[in-house]
């Protein structure tokens, strides 16, 4: 009797849940984070974008990529829309909400400060004493530090806003990936030695995500194409081009 009731409940849930097709055409979204994913002369490019584009070429997919604020991209995907996210970080909190293809990238996340400030930190507890820590809203780093009990976080709309506030002395430190920092500084016309890492936070991997109810056959195609890229050297070529690895 219990099995029959459980089966009926599953059937009703499946009927009630809108299909992917009913939620509109598939979209590929990512945040403006050079050199990983950004727009240049009207074309979305960057390491993660080019990995995605090569996977698409191999499987015959022509879905256009879009650059949108990360908070919007993430919330759109969480709302159950038919969305692929490019290069989000995989965390325990995010894990059950998506199907994950990858890994595509491993990043080193640090706390940075202006070199002239001469801030020195040894532990997370030291970082709690800062008057404020800048970081993009809804980024994995915000969730990580919030879960760690930090009360001095200041979420902002974008990495560019975060850097501008740090340079203006609005707050003493910011959180950013080592891979993103050089391009972020270059876009602002700031010398790399202007800021320095003051505390290592974590190493974390980026993936490509699909909705949790996306067809397993489609997700498998993407994963197999990525693995093929890693075997034939095309993935390493993109790493060297964009990340100098």
TrEMBL record:
Residues 25-245 form the Solute-binding protein family 3/N-terminal domain. SMART domains: PBPb. Coiled coil: none annotated. Residues 1-21 form the signal peptide. It holds the Pfam family SBP_bac_3. Keywords: Signal. This is Amino acid ABC transporter substrate-binding protein, PAAT family. It comes from Duganella sacchari.
């Amino acid at each position: 009797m219990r099995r029959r009731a459980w089966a009926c409940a599953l059937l009703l849930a499946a009927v009630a849940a809108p299909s992917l097709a009913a939620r509109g055409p598939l979209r590929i979204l990512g945040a403006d984070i050079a050199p990983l994913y950004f727009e240049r002369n009207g074309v979305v490019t960057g390491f993660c974008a080019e990995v995605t584009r090569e996977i698409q070429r191999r499987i015959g997919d022509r879905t256009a990529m879009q650059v949108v604020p990360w908070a919007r991209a993430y919330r759109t995907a969480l709302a159950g829309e038919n969305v692929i996210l490019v290069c989000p970080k995989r965390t325990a909190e995010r894990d059950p909400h998506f199907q994950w293809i990858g890994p595509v990238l491993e990043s080193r996340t640090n706390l940075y400060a202006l070199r002239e400030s001469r801030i020195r930190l040894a532990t997370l507890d030291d970082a709690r004493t800062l008057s404020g820590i800048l970081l993009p809203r809804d980024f994995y780093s915000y969730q990580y530090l919030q879960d760690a009990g930090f009360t001095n976080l200041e979420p902002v709309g974008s990495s560019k806003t975060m850097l501008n506030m740090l340079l203006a002395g609005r707050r003493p430190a910011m959180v950013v990936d080592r891979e993103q920092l050089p391009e972020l500084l270059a876009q602002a016309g700031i010398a790399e030695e202007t800021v320095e890492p003051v505390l290592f936070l974590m190493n974390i991997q980026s993936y490509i995500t699909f909705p949790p109810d996306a067809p397993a056959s489609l997700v498998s195609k993407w994963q197999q194409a990525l693995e093929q890229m890693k075997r034939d050297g095309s993935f390493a070529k993109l790493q060297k081009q964009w990340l100098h690895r």
